[in-house]
Specification:
Elements: H1 30-43, H2 45-54, H3 67-77, H4 82-100, H5 109-113, H6 117-122, H7 127-141, H8 155-162, H9 170-180, H10 192-202, H11 210-216, H12 224-239
Keywords: DNA damage, DNA repair
Protein name: DNA-3-methyladenine glycosylase II
Catalytic activity: Hydrolysis of alkylated DNA, releasing 3-methyladenine, 3-methylguanine, 7-methylguanine and 7-methyladenine
């Protein structure tokens, strides 16, 4: 007989316990943005030129509303034009208000699960989006997505908690980190706008793939979110013929 295999235990950190302090970056503030711009400009001359052309960064966390409401809105807005998405989202909030018996712009997981699927479909939501929003609500209620503990979770832990939700992939999770939580060192390597902006700034012949962008971004750390924002904004300047 072959010798019995010895079992080895793998330590997996429980997200109910705080992540190490070193793994949690402080949210961006006006003061920290000033620091980021100064450091990026000093260590990367090409990016510094783009920063000078674009001007001050306005990437501050969006604090209005709730995390759940923000994520639900993101799902509603997916693959829709701005006006259509705004209309459908407004209808969605009216149904939530009717269910709660009070006018509100802040849906709760419980209120969403209490609304009939057909009623949500009547707002203009697709079947897939109804399922996604309800799956989001269920993840929050059963604790798989602990929205009340995000401040003690690392970026990767938050992404790992978000992507199992229907309708939320890595890109949506990264945008949540950047624009909602103000995390300073997020690098959306698959974002076409960031890749095109990096191509413009660094004058690369080909559009950088994920691996190439990771190499370029070594000088961006720990301010990859800010550098990515400038990649987007450089494209605006290019469209206007300004850079």
């Amino acid at each position: 007989m072959s010798p019995a295999k010895k079992r080895t235990s793998v330590s997996v950190r429980d997200v109910s316990a705080p992540a190490p302090a070193s793994a949690i970056a402080k949210p961006l503030t006006t003061r920290r943005l000033t620091q980021a711009i100064a450091e990026l400009s000093e260590r990367d001359t090409r990016l510094g030129a783009a920063i000078a052309a674009v001007g001050p960064c306005t990437l501050l966390p969006r604090t209005e509303g709730t995390h759940f409401g923000h994520l639900a809105r993101n799902i509603v807005y997916q693959q829709l034009s701005g006006s259509a998405a705004t209309t459908i989202h407004g209808r969605f909030l009216k149904h939530v208000s009717a269910h709660l018996g009070v006018e509100t712009e802040h849906p709760t997981p419980e209120s969403v699960l209490g609304i009939d699927d057909d009623a949500l479909r009547g707002c203009g939501l697709s079947v897939a989006k109804v399922r996604a929003i309800k799956d989001l609500a269920q993840h929050v209620i059963d604790g798989r997505l602990p929205l009340d503990r995000l401040d003690v979770m690392s970026d990767q832990e938050i992404i790992d908690a978000l992507v199992p939700v229907r309708g939320i992939g890595p890109w949506t999770a990264q945008m949540f980190l950047m624009f909602r939580l103000g995390r300073p060192d997020v690098l959306p390597v698959l974002d076409l706008g960031v890749r095109k902006g990096a191509q413009r700034i660094y004058r690369t012949r080909a559009l950088p793939d994920a691996a190439r962008l990771e190499k370029i971004a070594k000088t961006w750390r720990p301010w990859a979110s800010v550098a990515s924002w400038y990649c987007w904004r450089v494209l605006d300047l290019e469209d206007a013929g300004g850079w």
